[in-house]
Design goal:
globular; alpha+beta; 6-stranded mixed beta sheet; 3-stranded antiparallel beta sheet; 2 domains
Length: 256
Amino acid sequence: MNDEKLIEHLGNVISWANVIREELEPIMDAHGSKVHFRPAAKGFSMVGLLPDRPQRAKAGYTKADGLLANFDEEFRTHCIDVDATKPSIEKQLKAFLIAEAHQNEGQLKSLNHASKPTQTPVSLTFVTDELVIPVGRHRVVCDMLAVRSTKDGDVPVVIEVKGSRGKAGLIDHVTMNAALVDEYSELFAKLFATLLGREVNFVGPSEKWVIWPSATGTGPDLNEGDFLRGGVRMVTFTTLMRGYLFKIHKAPQPVS
């Protein structure tokens, strides 16, 4: 498949990713624990990471100057003084992971730490979230994109974050997103490199990860086999008073 619309779309996303990287760095240096900038095809979004207002956002920015001059006012208007209804578990978790990454040079610290006791520990770096991709007449959304560093290069990691344990269509969805990253790997590598500010060299196919709540009880998680057969690495989490406790389950194939 050679989808010209998709190629043009990703090219535009890369252009706005460059604006984020080159022009909004002063804001990220000062406020990275509470704000995230997300590239899109027609501009970029400002996304709040506050625990009680997770992922409250303003889309459609096309200039960095206004934000640089009036960040405090813009952030307060769109990410603080907004509807305070109870946030979803998914939004809270994503905001936590992204804020943690921003404070640790991009490293998804909690996930990396949780992988250490496993046979396949990882080093994951956050790239972006909620990337919209046009596919034919439809749109798909990549929940989170990360990269796993290896001695041979970079492995793209496609992550779905779920606030509940509804599995219907989940494996198919993350598999489709990973296939898109692999098919358009040159463009995705350029997007990753732009946002990370370094050269990115993809090696191997994309990994598929799902993060969702821990099962009740103390026995083995009966869904693990389904995920492994689908080529998906399962991560479970338990919500704590402050933060989360993660468990990284088996990798579906050897990780180099």
